[in-house]
Amino acid sequence: MRVTYKMILSSLLDNISNISERINNLEKQAASGKRINKPSDDPYAYNKSLSFKSLKKSMSQFEKNLSSGKEWLSTTDTALQSANDLLIRAKEIALSASNDTMSADERETAAIEVQGLFEQMVQIANTKLGSKYIFAGTAVSTEAFDSNGNYNGNSSNINIEIDANKRMTINFTGDNIFKGASGGEDVFDVLSDLKTALENNDTDNIASQISRIDTSMNQVLDYRANTGAKINQIENTETWYEDSKARLDILLSENEDADIIEVLTQLAKEQSAYKATLATTSEIMSNTLAEFLK
What CATH architecture applies to the domain 57-252? Predict the structure, then answer.
């Protein structure tokens, strides 16, 4: 078959087009630092990167859930610490008032302080995070307790997803903590009974409240311990996700990052080839034109 100028020129133009496409791809790799910028660059590696990114996105959502749960539990922990402080003060009052050296007037004054402790306990039991009452179960928009210490919430759990198919309960309900619904003491009844005993100047009844206060304190502290354990679990899980995401970043980098030195070297070669091919094409076109004009 006779090779004509037209065939040679067509081949050169095809070569120019191919080189231009390779230069364009290499320039994209140099600019992005990635060897994979579209599925056709490497379908298998592209899909592998998508899997890594999808997994990382899921982990980020779980981390957000953990952060929200940790904030809820930290608020719970602070409230329970305050509740325990009030009970410590109530015990101090009961111990002092059960002593025969305290006068009736002093016990009357102590009763007023205990009433204040009762009111403060109601405020603590109605602790909110944002607009949500943390001790009201899932009835978070309902005030957990009324001014008399009656519970208005429910006994339902609030759960967060911390991993695929794994959930954690982040709340403790007020009926268990403050009302002893699981078999403990009603903290409000204890404070109310102590107040009444003080008003009645009844030392025996005042003394009998001390063990109930101790039970109430242990009750609150048990829930605080459980709260702390959950916070620790969240922090450990957060650390695990941070480490896992760091490992995913390494795998992602190994899968799709370009070798910049190799890319720039190859780009320089392709640019040289492009210039040479352009020069050859220009010369052939000039010769063809000269032959045509003869």
Answer: Up-down Bundle (1.20)
CA distance 66 to 61: 9
Give residue 33's Cα distance to chain centre: 31
139-193 pLDDT, tens digit each: 999 999 999 999 999 999 999 999 988 999 999 999 999 999 988 999 999 999 9
* Nearest alpha carbon to residue 133 among 148, 152, 150: 152
Cα separation values, 43 from 22, 255, 281, Å: 17, 12, 35
How far, in Å, CA of 126 to CA of 198, rounded? 26
Task: Pull the structure tokens for residue 195.
Answer: 């107040």
Chain-centre distance of CA 150, in angstroms? Answer: 33
Query: Residue 53 belongs to what H/E stretch?
Result: helix 43-97
The 10 Å Cβ neighbour count of residue 181 is: 14
Report the length, in residues, of the chain: 294
Interval 123-148: pLDDT, tens: 999 999 999 999 999 999 999 999 99
pTM for this entry: 0.77
> Is residue 114 a contact partner of residue 189, using CB atoms and an 8 Å limit?
no
Q: What angle do CA 79, 118, 225 make, to 5 degrees?
A: 30
Q: Is the pLDDT of residue 89 over 90?
A: yes
Nearest one of 284, 114, 94 to 192, comparing CA atoms:
114
